[in-house]
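Inputs:
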Amino acid sequence: MQKIGVFVCWCGSNIAATVDVKAVANALRSEPGVVFSTEYQYMCSENGQNLIKDTIRDYKLDGIVICSCSPRMHEATFRKTALAAGLNPYMVEIANIREQVSWIHKDMTEATDKAIVLGRAAIAKVKKNAPLTAGTSPVTKRALVIGGGIAGIQTALDVADAGYEVDIVEKSPTIGGRMAQLDKTFPTLDCAACILTPKMVEANQHENINLLTYSEVESVSGFVGSFKAKIRKKARFVDEVKCTGCGVCTEKCPSRKGLNEFNMGLNTRGAVYIPFAQAVPNKAVIDASNCIHFRTGKCGICEKNCSAGAIKFDQQDEIIERDYGAIVVATGFKPIDASAFDEYAYNQSKDVVTSLEFERLMNAAGPTKGTLLRPSDGEHPHEIVFIQCVGSRCSRDASKGKEYCSKICCMYTAKHAMLVREKYPDTKVHVFYIDVRTPGKNFDEFYRRAVEQYGVDYIKGMVGKVTVEGKKLRVQGSDLISNEQVHIDADMVVLATAIEPDPTARSIGTMLTASMDTNDFFTEAHPKLRPVESPTAGIFLSGVCQGPKDIPETVSQAGAAASKVIGLLSKNELVGNPCVAHANELLCNGCSQCERVCPYGAITYVEKEVRGPEFRGTKRVAVVNEAVCQGCGACTVTCPSTAMDLKGFSNNQIMAEVDAICR
Amino acid sequence: MTYSYYPGCTLKTKAKGLDRFGRLSAEALGVQLEEIENWQCCGAVYPQASDEIATKLSAIRALDAAKGKGQKLLTLCSACHHVIKRVNHDMQTDANLRQKANNYLQLETPYLGEAEVVHYLEMLRDEVGFDNLRKAVKNPLKGVKIAAYYGCLLLRPSGVMAFDDPECPRIIEDFVTAIGATPVIYSQRNECCGGYMALEDKPAAQKRVDAILKSAKDAGAELIITACPLCMYNLDANATANVLPVKYFTELLYQALGLEGKEGE
């Protein structure tokens, strides 16, 4: 007879306030096989763990059941406890009586009964557990960073400085991301380019960093420590080695139809272009859709004018395959499309711009060389209205917009308002806001400076409508403090549009099997305690791909992600998960259904000599690669002949649990 | 597809054109409209008082008639559409009204909000499809710059009406494109025309009408179209200067389908 110990945790009042923990311990004590049962205030504390260890030794237990929180929280903790007391860590079962009982029930009798039932199920299962030993797998000491904005650059630099190789894959022709587009940065007003470009250059020159710009990750296979990625390096039609970045081709190009992405489409660029003066790498790229040569076969002016002979119209996409130990997602964000918000006349007037467009209009490297001019007629605006929360904090049932706060808009709007007042003191500036949210170091001081020193007119209330009245934009809003309707005839309106994850995030999330929330932000492994890790092992999160963040926060998180990557890459091998699938060759009928459903490609079929009581000979059977199998169980439920089973979660064990619950 | 059709009083009196062009165009597009028998006036104004039952009964009778035939209820007048759609929503969500209305009506089977209310424009978009409409157009209104005037009744409250985005609607603009004309976007297209104040405070209504017409004219429109008889009357009769002609959208549909002069007028 096996000897099972049961440990019921109070979790302070988290469990004990709703579940009668003593009654649970008493009820489970009379289960067959249970030789010890007790409750304790905090089972995960040192004292609690010592209680478990001592009992394992004293009673020579074969298995233990902990009735506590979700196994996601403390399964690893209690497995280590068991191991320390000489018990195989896979002889531990958790009955989740917190998330699945005390937190969701109110009635104590009902909750206690349910806790007892779940405890019984865990006891029934642990009696059928077998000791398992985890294998090990090697760690490839190289990291892949997807996205070359400030988040990706910072993570890559930190990992590279620790001595590991890093590849940055960036879909556009240059690294730098959104930060490169900004003019000044809050709360210190230092110029974005001045603090970012040295980092871009450092990333380019770092011996451990390899930049793959104008490239996209096509597929990823493998698992933590041993990922295999296929990266498509798109044809630039320019030889990166030969191009010196002199820019002659970009000046000579006769096609001027391509919208300048860097300037948010406020002006145009040539078909051959360098995104901006400080681009890294500083190499030209040809946009084939606007290139006269690609459309008509003629032209070729860039080729004739390139003294380096770098133009390569016949260049092809290149596929690079590489192994990585860790992958960092740093895919960033984009502002939402403002054209859905026609109440602000974004579609009707060029003088209604988004904040990022305004950023380019204020930037010395922007389309107006930093002079603030109305896009419609090039005149200087004398009255500007900023509207906050455009598409942020929308109600759940609204047909458009986001429910969340985009977090950065209050601060950048205060910055814009302040910069306008400083540069053009004759300009009146109004800001409509719902709330001003400035919780950050020196943030509220910054906002108050805009109000108190720069005389920016902050109006609490939202704008209902912007109408085009000749050259003016009539802004109709409400002032909730004076309870009045406000009408302002403005020359420009700036919309603080919400930010959303980059559109490529969803496909990358699917590729990496990294979970995302309904807004397409990547989900962290734990919202408080594991904020830079994806629940998928080996995938780390850096920057806005995880949720709205400003630059200081992004850089901190990027560093945190890097430290997690370094921690992983510093190991020579990883202990695997022994709860993997296993095929019973005697029962396998070679149907291949498991191979088809396996999301990890862990199952292959081989012709094999099989010997059993009823069969002897060669047959086609499934074989599981235990290093690749993640133990998801898809094959076990698919197998029509019950040949597939999952170690630690065998059909046998699950049925025992069900029986115990239904008893 | 056959719909139960609720024309409403105005379409039998002041707005005969809206009705006639609508019927003839539907026929040409292969959509059958079966007028509900013995329909009653919807009341034209949705009663805001939550304990108001009697004024909602005529709408419920029309809805029940459509339900009885297993058809969708098609409306054309913005005001009727607004009232009937909102009353149907009340019947779906307000148990108190459901019980009291059914107690009063004593129908064979109680009406519980089963019918679906569809506006003529929604029928064009979702049933016919604007792509198919474009193919059916024989006389495209090329080059005509048309300002779509939505008014308030079709769009709001947006959660209940579920007609289009209340701030950035496009259904009438898509219709205008489908009949070969050019839609003009202008800021007043979804603002109230003040029609309900036309008798009580005429200057207020005039101010609204002038603002709408000026906004459309400044944006380059040659013509305004609407689906609402009250907006039509107000934009036409209460403008201080008639700067733009106002027409029902069904009239242009009828022209574009090449039906003009085909019947013995």
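The domain at 142-234+317-332+502-569 of chain A is CATH 3.50.50.60 (FAD/NAD(P)-binding domain). Flag for discussion at group meeting.
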